[in-house]
Design a protein that fits this description.
The chain is an alpha+beta fold. Helix content is 45%, strand content 20%. It contains eleven helices and ten strands.
């Protein structure tokens, strides 16, 4: 048993490391005002100091050089708020400050990285929110060619074997049937679907990604239009609930193929390769479409945004692992970058949204009066009615749900 076994696990944006302890710095920003003929200055409180966590991260083991490189890359490339999972402080939204690395060849070799994390202050400016969305969308556009190239490289420019072409054609038909069974708002106006010659891998790859891109645009266009903000800084509480599946059915296709039987590798090895490549292509294109939609819709509450972020993270982890297992390191790095960008963008969404909470009053009361009590704003009454599915706005139940504004 080595001293490494006593260290505690932590991670930043999904990259793991070990820690021994943490220094936390905070306090108040005080300004001393001095006056003539007075011995003691007057103190003015300008608010709380930034909360800074100073951590010494350890990476050790046979792959410590690779793990150090991955952690340094994640830290150095983090230009937005990231997720620190700490063994005692829990999940923290943080910004990366100064880092300092060192390594030693003793005890088998290990590296340490001193990191300064600053706790995120919460509500971001509209400019930074827009920038996070733009960064994610730009990253998704850059990922699509890697996705197509991975499929083409796996099956070759042409699939010469008739049995392999038949398999690809059948699986394309299965996916196309599921695609066309989605909500009308998703597939409206898309006539080609996945129609492509299965012996032409280039056409197949572009047809799949184009169909999902068109579907994402349809879902975004079908979203209810939010009213103009009354206050450009604080905004207003959303009164238009999202559908049960904001992705319009795209989320289900991001898991396409999980129930398909595995092709035997002994008879025709290309069968298993072709099926795995096609599944990754369809899943990846669908996930890109879901991320495109989620980046541009208005979430009703922080609860919805957080639940969506958890779903997306699981799907992203699958794609990262699949690309690594296939040895496609370009696609692997692309998915890892998208994972970090999506996490940052969804975290910003959640921070600036109201959270779903429960109210309790003495008895039945009109929605207008309840909105005034909860929000000090009677115009929020329609939102309460919609959120609680009340048949008449005069009869709001004594206990129900409301959207607590973000702090």
């Amino acid at each position: 048993m080595s001293w490494f076994d006593d260290l505690l696990p932590a991670s930043f944006n999904g990259v793991p490391f070990l820690i021994e302890g943490t220094d936390r710095e905070s306090g108040r920003r005080l300004v001393a005002h001095e006056f003539p003929l007075r011995n003691d200055p007057s103190q003015e409180d300008l608010g709380r100091l930034p909360r800074v966590f100073s951590i010494k991260a350890y990476v050790a083991g046979d792959l410590w050089v690779l793990e150090r490189s991955l952690l340094e890359t994640a830290l150095e490339n983090s230009s937005t708020v990231g997720t620190l999972i700490h063994p005692t402080y829990g999940i923290l939204n943080v910004w990366v400050g100064k880092i300092r690395s060192s390594e030693t060849r003793t005890v088998g070799g290990y590296a340490t990285i001193d990191i300064e994390f600053s706790l995120d202050g919460g509500t971001a400016s509209p400019l930074s929110i827009t920038d996070a969305v733009s960064t994610l969308l730009a990253g998704l556009n850059s990922l699509v060619p890697f996705l197509e190239d991975a499929y083409i490289a796996s099956v070759g420019l042409e699939i010469l074997s008739g049995v392999v072409a038949t398999l690809v054609g059948n699986q394309l038909s299965n996916a196309d049937a599921q695609f066309n069974a989605m909500a009308q708002s998703t597939v409206s106006g898309i006539t080609s679907g996945f129609a492509a010659n299965p012996t032409d891998s280039t056409t197949t790859a572009s047809a799949v990604t184009a169909a999902f891109a068109a579907a994402a645009n349809n879902v975004i266009a079908a979203q209810p239009v939010q009213p103009a903000l009354e206050d450009p800084v604080a905004g207003v509480t959303s009164t238009q609930p999202l559908s049960a599946d904001p992705s319009g059915g795209l989320l289900a296709l991001a898991s396409f193929g999980s129930t398909l039987p595995t092709q035997p590798s002994t008879a025709v090895p290309a069968l298993g390769v072709a099926q795995a490549a096609l599944i990754s292509l369809i899943q990846g294109a669908a996930l890109v479409a879901v991320l495109t939609v989620y980046a541009q819709i208005d979430w009703q509450s922080a609860n919805q945004a957080q639940a969506a972020a958890e779903q997306l993270q699981c799907l992203l982890d699958v794609q990262v692992a699949a690309a690594a297992d296939a040895g496609n390191f370009d696609l692997f790095r692309a998915w890892r970058a998208i994972s970090a960008q999506a996490r940052a963008q969804m975290a910003q969404d959640a921070q600036n949204l109201p959270s779903l909470a429960t109210y309790s009053v003495a008895g039945v009361m009109p929605a207008l009066a309840l909105a005034q009590r909860l929000y000090q704003d009677g115009t929020q009454a329609p939102g309460l009615v919609a959120l609680n599915d009340v048949p008449h706005p005069i009869f709001m139940p004594p206990t129900g749900s409301w959207l607590r504004p973000a702090a």
